[in-house]
Structure to design on (228 residues):
């Protein structure tokens, strides 16, 4: 069920900017109402296009053709104005600060339907379906290691590297992480962001063998799909 819940926190997308990214977040507050209140409060200066509640309800806050304010200082594949290029979706979840927990299947299924609809209407490649932590690895953890990116990829939303297919290990990890799109100013933070997304059982920030192989497998996948 879609519920109109307009937020004033948006502006115009710069002329000629394509929508080619999908950015996922968690709300990180104790209750859904608290999150919605914040996302429509003019003083907060934050918003998203959609909020997906744990019960599967979808709140529509900002029209898709407007720039919602969800990414903050961020970077992906050379872009710093991620808000201009993206649709932002917030998932109800108290987050690491207030009792982080699994994302229920009602919520995941609603998110998949919404995401597939967006992917059908915009040119958003699999590698441009990202979490807030991917685009701001030094500041953000959301949607976090309990978010099931593999399930999403199996439903056609985002990429998932085949396990143990990467040739690795490689030496130039920073280069390959930046080829994927990450900023690498703090390599440990970037490795953690990568692991939160693709290796959620081992968020060490270390460039261990499994991490190298996984990075390699994802590079192979990006190459094979021809998406760029
Ligand atoms: Zn976020």
């Amino acid at each position: 069920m879609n519920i109109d819940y307009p937020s004033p926190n948006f502006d115009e997308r710069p002329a000629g900017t394509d929508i080619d990214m999908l950015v996922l977040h968690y709300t990180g507050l104790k209750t859904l109402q608290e999150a919605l209140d914040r996302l429509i409060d003019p003083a907060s200066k934050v918003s998203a296009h959609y909020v997906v509640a744990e019960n599967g309800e979808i709140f529509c806050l900002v029209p898709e053709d407007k720039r919602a304010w969800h990414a903050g200082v961020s970077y992906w594949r050379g872009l710093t104005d991620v808000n201009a290029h993206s649709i932002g979706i917030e998932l109800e979840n108290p987050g690491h600060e207030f009792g982080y927990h699994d994302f229920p299947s009602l919520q995941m299924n609603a998110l998949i339907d919404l995401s597939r609809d967006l992917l059908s209407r915009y040119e958003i490649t699999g590698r441009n379906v990202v979490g807030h932590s991917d685009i701001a690895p030094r500041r953000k953890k959301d949607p976090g290691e309990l978010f099931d990116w593999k399930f999403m990829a199996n439903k056609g939303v985002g990429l998932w590297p085949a396990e143990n297919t990467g040739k690795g290990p490689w030496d130039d990890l920073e280069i390959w992480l930046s080829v994927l799109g990450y900023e690498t100013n703090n390599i440990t933070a970037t490795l953690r962001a990568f692991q939160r997304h693709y290796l959620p059982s081992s968020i060490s920030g270390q460039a261990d063998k499994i991490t190298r192989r996984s990075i390699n497998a994802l590079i192979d996948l990006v190459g094979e799909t021809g998406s760029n």
